[in-house]
Amino acid sequence: MMKLTCNSARLGASVCLLAWTAVASASDDGREHWCLPPPPGLTGWWPGDGNAYDIVGGRDAELHSGASFGLAFVDQAFLLHGDGDGDGVGDYVSVADDPALNFGTGNFTVDFWAFFGDPAAGEQVLIEKWVQSFSGLSSGWTFTHFPGNELGFFIESAGAGQGVVSDPVPIPAGTWTHFAATRRAGTFALYVNGQRVASSLFAEGNMNADSPASIKFGHRGNSADTPGSEDESGFYLDGGIDEVEIFVGRALTRDQIRAIYFAGRQGKCKP
Questions:
Q1: DSSP 151-194
Q2: 196: domain CATH number?
C-alpha cells in the first residue's frame, strides 16, 4: 500500500495526523495523487470547478457581469476582472441570503485561495456578507484587502463594530495565495498561506455578524444589488477566487488551516 510521508518538523503533529487520513486518486497518467479530507463542520463549499455549485450545502452561487471559470491552482476557479474588462461593470459572484449562512454570535471560519492582477490597485473585497450604511447602522462582515497588502476583517451590528487589520504581508501579483479568517470566543485571527498574520481579542465576546445581504466574492455590495447598502465604491477584486469554504459555528485550528494550505494543488477531497 502506498505510504504518505509526513514532515512533522514542518507541519506539526496534528497536521500530520490529518495528512495520514488523505485519500489517493488515480489520474490519467496512472499516478496516485493525494487530497486532504475537508475538516468537519462545513456549511458551504464553492470550488468553482467549471460551475457555481455549493457541493455541501446546495446553496449555489451566481456569476455576474463577465465573471467566468478558468484553470487555477486547485482545478478551476472563479475568474473576476474587476472593472477593467471594458464593460464598465465589475465581475463578481454572489450566494443568495440564507439564514443558515449567518454567523450570529458564534464561532466561524472563512477560507479560500485568491490571486490579484495588481494588489496595489485600491481596496479589493475578497468575500463579504455586508450591508454598508453611512448612518452608522452597517451590518454583517467583510474580509477585504487594502492596497498596501494589509488584510482586514470587520463586523458591524447596531452601530458597534469589531475587527482586525494585519501589517503588510507579501502577496505577489498573479500568484495564488491561501487566506483564512476565524473567530473563536471573541478572538479574530487572519491567516495567509497557513501563517497567522493578525489577531485581536475582544473582551465583550462575539458580536452578532448577521446580515440580510447575499454573500459576495470580489465585490462590495451597492444599492443595486444589496438592499439597504449605500456604498457605490464597488471594491471589485481584479483576479480570481477559488475553493471558498464557510464554517458556521466552527473555528478551525491553526493546524487545520495549515493542512489545507499544504495540501496545495491536490486540494481537499470532493464528494
A1: EEEEEEETTEEEEEEPPP----TT--EEEEEEEETTEEEEEETT
A2: 2.60.120.200
The least confident of 5-14, 77-86, 118-127, 207-216 is: 5-14
Q: What angle do CA 29, 50, 170 make, to 5 degrees?
A: 85
Question: By C-alpha distance, which of 105, 79, 62, 74 is closest to 216?
Answer: 62
pTM more than 0.70? yes
Pairing outcome for strands 76-81 and 44-46: unpaired
Residue span of the structural domain in which 234 resides:
44-266
- β-bridge pairing 108-116 and 238-248: antiparallel
CA distance 38 to 270: 8
245 burial level (CB within 10 Å; 0-12, 13-18, 19+): buried
Query: pLDDT tens-digit profile of 144-153?
Result: 999 999 999 9
Please state, in angstroms and rounded to a whole number, the distance separating the CA atoms of residues 68 and 217.
13
List Cα–Cα distances, 202 to 43, 172, 186, in angstroms: 25, 31, 5
